[in-house]
Design a protein that fits this description.
The protein is mainly alpha-helical. The chain has helices spanning about 5-20, 30-35, 45-75, 75-105, 110-130, 140-165, 170-190, 195-205, 210-220, 230-240, 245-275, 275-285, 290-300.
């Protein structure tokens, strides 16, 4: 409905510009939590308040830098407003990732599953409404932000109920968590250079129509990653507990998990790569067909 130009602006703001900058606000905490909290449940309360405060301060700095860069590059006002909304969304998204990781670590995910479905419904229905009413582009950021706000309230209540999470400042616990999470943060930052960085650079070096073609292809190609979250959401807490028993148990679980992921992903990747033109035309329409070459290259990635 937006076409390559409008979708390119939305995609650059959501999947490129804000996503690249707010990698810094993640701090690598999600993987760290799934590794440590299954063995030490009380540790979550030792660092949650301190890391949350740090994430908020980082978000303020990042939003200011982003707005400054957009002014210098002459980006239009409506795009600056959209980036502001999506930047605030990224802050809540990162915080919610921390809360979700705590629930995963404690194996209390029933409420989390319901919350995810409910908030995605708010997001999807809100965006459809904005499109049908033909509201200006920044309005598309409102349901995205609203859904994450609702999710934050629900997840914090669930984390307090099921994991005993407390909001307090503990300098020592915060330092311990940041130090332990540093390797995971470096890994996350490196991965951000793969997809989001390409969208980020295209928005500055070319035009938003190119971003629309590239972003739509990336969205479809990323379907091949549907099985990948199993490794972090489910396997990491399981492997953390297995490590207390034996290395052989870790390898046995990892082998079976990788077999399942490959069996699911390889046929899907082949279907996406070989039928790239067909899928692009079917899902997005003929105006997005030039993105097929990107999709063919990204599906194996």
């Amino acid at each position: 409905m937006l076409g390559p130009e409008g979708f390119g602006q939305l995609n650059w703001a959501a999947e490129g510009f804000t996503a690249v900058f707010f990698v810094l606000a993640g701090l690598g905490l999600e993987v760290y939590i799934r590794k440590e909290v299954p063995l030490r449940p009380e540790h979550a309360s030792e660092f949650f308040g301190g890391t949350l405060l740090l994430q908020v301060l980082l978000a303020v700095v990042l939003l200011a830098v982003m707005q400054g860069l957009m002014v210098l590059d002459g980006k239009p006002d409506h795009l600056r407003v959209l980036v502001l909304l999506l930047g605030i969304y990224q802050l809540f998204f990162r915080c919610n990732g921390t809360l979700a990781a705590v629930l995963h670590a404690r194996e209390r995910v029933d409420g989390l599953s319901v919350a995810n479905i409910a908030t995605k419904s708010v997001w999807g229905l809100g965006q459809v409404l904005v499109l049908l009413l033909e509201l200006p582009l920044p309005w598309l950021g409102v349901p995205i932000l609203a859904s994450e706000l609702v999710r934050a309230v629900v997840l914090f209540r669930l984390a307090r109920r099921h994991a005993g999470l407390e909001l307090r400042l503990d300098a020592r616990g915060t330092r311990t968590a940041l130090k332990g999470a540093l390797p995971f943060f470096m890994n996350e930052a490196a991965l951000a250079a793969n997809g989001p960085m390409g969208i980020f650079l295209l928005g500055f070096l070319t035009n938003t129509t190119e971003v629309g073609w590239y972003g739509s292809a990336m969205n479809l190609a990323n379907i091949t990653l549907m099985a990948a979250p199993v490794l972090t959401w489910v396997m990491m807490p399981l492997l953390a507990r297995a490590s207390a028993h034996s290395q052989e148990e870790i390898f046995r679980i990892a082998r079976r998990a990788l077999e399942a992921v490959c069996a699911f992903s390889i046929p899907l990747m082949l279907a996406m790569a070989l039928g790239a033109e067909t899928w692009m035309s079917l899902v997005y329409g003929e105006t997005f067909r030039p993105g097929a070459v990107v999709m063919r290259l990204q599906a194996p990635v």
